[in-house]
Amino acid sequence: MKRIILTISMCVLLFSMIGSVSEAAGTFDAAYYARRYPDVVAELGTDPKALYDHYMTFGINEHRFQNAQEEADALAVSNATQNVTKYVDIDIANQTLTLYDNGEIRLQTACVTGTSGRNDTPVGTYSIDYKCPGKYLTGRTWKCWVDRWMRFISKGIGIHDATWRASFGGEIYKKNGSHGCVNISHSAAMQLYDMVEVGTVVIVH
Fold first, then answer.
1. Torsion of Cα atoms, 179 then 185 then 186 then 190, to 10°
2. What are the CA-CA distances from residue 79 to residues 73, 102, 203 (Å)?
3. Left (φ > 0), alpha (ψ -120 to 50) or beta: where does 194 sit?
4. What residue ranges in the chain does DSSP mark as E strands?
5. What is the mean pLDDT of residues 164-173?
6. pLDDT by residue (tens digit) across 105-139?
7. Over the stretch 24-67, which tens digit does the pLDDT of each residue have?
8. Which residue ranges form the domains of the chain, and what is each CATH number?
9. Using an 8 Å Cβ cutoff, are 62 and 38 in contact?
C-alpha cells in the first residue's frame, strides 16, 4: 500500500514539474532550440528544462531565438529595414516600441497593443501617413482625447498617448489591450511625435 501511495505521489510530482516548465516556458520550443543550437545540446543534452534554463540564463543575452516564428520575424524585420535609416519597431511579444535612426536606438518605451485574439494590432510593414498634435479618437463605445496621434494604417490604427492607463508593457495586452492602436505613455508620445515624420516606416511584428 505504501509503495502504491509513493508511486502515485511521484507521478503527481512529475506531472506538476512538467506543467510548471511548460507554463513558464510560454512560447519556448525545446525541439527547435535543440535543432538550431547544437552547441548547447553538446553541453546540456536535449532535456527541455535544461534547454529552457539555458535560454533564460544565457540565450536571451546572446540573441538566440526561442522558436522558429521568432527567428522568422527577426528575418522579416531585417529585410524590411535593410535600406531604411529610420523606423519605428513595435514588438508585440515584448510589448515595446523602439525608434531606430541610423542603426541607433533613439527612443524605447513600453507599450500596449491591441487586445490579443480580439483587436490584435495588424502585423506588417507600414508608414506613418498622418500625424496631428491633438485629436478625439471615437468608436462605437468610446470617445477619448489624445495629445499626440501618429496614424500608420488608414482604417484608424496608430500610435498615441493613453493617459487613462496606469502602466504599459508586460501582459496587459492579453486581457486589457487597445482596440488595435499602440498605446504609449504621454511623455513617450510627446517625444516620438517630434522624432518621426509622415513617411517614417513602422514595423509591427
1. -100
2. 10, 15, 11
3. alpha
4. 86-91, 96-101, 104-110, 124-127, 130-132, 135-138, 143-146, 149-153, 157-161, 182-184, 201-204
5. 97
6. 999 999 999 999 999 999 999 999 999 999 999 98
7. 334 899 999 999 998 999 999 999 999 999 998 998 888 888 98
8. 2-59 (no CATH), 84-204 (2.40.440.10)
9. no
